[in-house]
Structure formats: structure tokens, C-alpha cells
Amino acid sequence: MGVLDYVSELCSLPKDQRKLRKKQFQTVEMKVRIDCEGCERKVKKALEEIKGVSSVEIERKQNKVTVTGYVDGKKVIKRVRRRTGKMVEPWPYVPYDMVPHPYAPGAYDRKAPPGYVRNVMDDPKLAQLVRASSMEERYSSAFSDDNPNSCAIM
């Protein structure tokens, strides 16, 4: 151990004093039931007071709130839940093009906005219902409407 190593250990900060990480710029989408303009103002006010928020967009018909900025997603959801008293959950829907079988049980949701289904690919219990097995793929491709001459039985 050289002199420089010894001096650098004396000058370094203790390991308990960690440097604070800067939050990354991100978009947080959540589902909040918004009934009227008063609810919308209450949610918007609660979110604009958070340090690091750049913009807040509310789509009342879809009950969707989008927050962008240097924020933590869990803290934003917790803040809205605490300040407004409303049920808040991360945005559970994705466009139906993103799911292999959008009308499988568990993926299809009547409460979803038009063109959206539940994001079941993240849920291991429901993902088995949405993914087709290789046997199902073989059967469905055997009788293709695109190519009627591809029937494997004839």
C-alpha cells in the first residue's frame, strides 16, 4: 500500500454518506376515477405541487392521468392517493395490437378505453391464457383464410 492509497482513504467520505441519485426524466401514467371538474382540479393541484413535475395531462373520459418530469412513479401515485383520497393504480391498459390474443379471458376488459386491453403480458397468472401454444398455432395456421390451398388435411 502506497502513500497515495493511504492519503486517498483518509480524504474519502464515509460510506454512510452516499451521493443522492438524480431522478431520470420519465412519464408516469395512472388510472384515477375523475367524475367532474372539481376532481380534475384536485388531482392536478396535488400533482403540480410535486417537485420535478414538468407537465400534467388529464383525460377525463378515459380516467387517465399522465405526469412527465423528474419524478419517482411510486411517490407520485402515493401522493395522489394521499392528497385526493381516490383509488389510484398504474395505467393497466395497452393498445390491443401489443397483445397476441387480445380477446382471451383476462385480457379483454369492458371498462378499458376503445382500442385498449389489459396488459396481461406482465401478469404471470394471466399470460398463460393469452399466449398460444405451438399446437394451437399449428391448428390455426392449417386452415388459413389467406391461403386456402394450405390446408394440411387435403
Notes on the structure:
With 154 residues, this protein is α+β, with helices and mostly antiparallel strands. The protein has 2 domains: 26-91, Alpha-Beta Plaits (2-Layer Sandwich); 94-141, no CATH class. Helices cover 32% and strands 19% of the residues. It has 5 helices and 6 strands. The chain has a 4-stranded antiparallel beta sheet with strand order 2-3-1-4, with helices on one face. Strands 5-6 form a two-stranded antiparallel ribbon. The longest helix has 12 residues, at 37-48. The relative contact order is 0.11. The mean pLDDT is 78.
Task: Please describe the topology of this protein.
Elements: H1 3-11, E1 26-32, H2 37-48, E2 53-59, E3 64-69, H3 73-84, E4 88-90, E5 93-95, E6 116-118, H4 124-130, H5 134-142
Antiparallel strand pairs: 1-3, 1-4, 2-3, 5-6
Helix pairs in contact: 2-3
